[in-house]
From TrEMBL:
GO MF annotations in UniProt: monooxygenase activity; oxidoreductase activity, acting on paired donors, with incorporation or reduction of molecular oxygen
Family membership noted in the UniProt record: To bacterial alkanal monooxygenase alpha and beta chains.
Origin species: Nonomuraea aridisoli
CDD domains according to UniProt: Flavin_utilizing_monoxygenases
Keywords recorded for this protein, A-Z: Monooxygenase, Oxidoreductase
This protein's name: Alkanal monooxygenase
PANTHER family, per database record: LUCIFERASE-LIKE MONOOXYGENASE
Cellular component annotations (GO), alphabetically ordered: cytosol
A Pfam family this chain is assigned to: Bac_luciferase
Length: 298
């Protein structure tokens, strides 16, 4: 078995009793650890109105995390594009790329990351129109609009900065096929839909068309995992995070060697080019320890 490169998805687990500032400091410490231990990239999500999640403004958080590191790739996993104007997202991430050249990733998804009421507030009543927004975003970042297009004369600022790599996120076959048809790298949310992973990745590879950005398919798989020094400690952390003894499908919990071996098996089974670990535990020290046990340089 060959272990795929490892990365981290951070949703900024937040404990109301300690507050958002503590959760954000924990993420700052964690990205430094990730860089020192050889993780390939560190992504943050976008969620709104979730009491125990502090990741709501990816571009702002990415700017901070990239500023306290120097080599690890930092990005969005992802921006929920239906909530935003494509040109705004393009300019935010072009600015980030200008500040941290070669280190920024932009993953986009079609979900709201919010309740229907909050999504309506974010969008101010405008229709989501994800596929059209994705096409506009790609054109703003990496290309140009055809003559006669309503945006043909518009250029993002800073115009001299090439856009960062654009990723498609998803948890089903429709997003996988869209990523393949557009020649984008694809990040599958195994931590949300473990049963759908094999079908989605097959759909992605089967529909893939080489693009100027990517010559062959590249599939990243995000996996929920908790590691500790002992299996009992790992299951205790899972219970403290509100998970029942019957763990969610596809979640890996155990001591370091057990979880590392399980991730390697999963990577082989799915043909994953990269594994992104999601460890949503509220104890910051335990979360750091989990990633330390699973790190490439452990």
């Amino acid at each position: 078995m060959v272990q795929s490169p490892l990365s981290i998805l951070d949703l900024v687990p937040l404990v109301p009793s300690t507050g958002a500032a503590a959760a954000l400091r924990a993420s700052t410490d964690l990205v430094r650890l990730a860089e020192s231990r050889g993780f390939r990239r560190y992504w943050v999500g976008e969620h709104h109105g979730v009491p125990n999640v502090g990741a709501s403004a990816p571009a702002v958080l990415i700017a901070h995390l990239a500023a306290v590191t120097s080599t690890i790739r930092v990005g969005a996993g992802g921006v929920m594009l239906s909530n935003h104007a494509p040109m705004v997202v393009a300019e935010q991430f072009a600015t980030l790329e200008g500040l941290h050249p070669g280190r920024i990733d932009l993953g986009v998804g079609s979900a709201a990351g919010a309740t229907a009421e909050i999504a309506e507030t974010l969008r101010q009543g405008a229709p989501a129109g994800f596929a059209g927004k994705l096409a506009d975003l790609a054109a703003f970042l990496h290309g140009s609009f055809p003559p006669g297009h309503r945006h043909a004369g518009i250029r993002v600022s800073p115009a001299a900065v090439p856009g960062p790599p654009l990723w498609m996120l998803g948890a089903g076959e429709s997003s996988a096929r869209l990523a393949g048809e557009l020649g984008l790298p694809y990040a599958f949310a195994h931590h949300l839909n473990a049963a759908g992973a094999e079908g989605a990745l097959a759909a992605y590879r089967g529909s893939f068309r080489p693009s100027a950005r990517l010559s062959q398919p590249y599939g990243l798989v995000s996996v929920a995992a908790i590691a500790a020094d002992t299996e009992a400690q790992a299951h205790q952390l899972a219970r403290a995070a509100g998970l029942p003894d019957d763990l969610p499908d596809g979640m890996v919990v155990g001591d370091g060697p057990t979880v590392r071996a399980a991730l390697a098996v999963l990577s082989d089974e799915l043909g994953a080019d990269e594994i992104m670990i999601v460890t949503n535990v509220f104890d910051a020290a335990a979360r750091r320890r989990s990633y330390t046990l699973l790190a490439p340089f452990s």
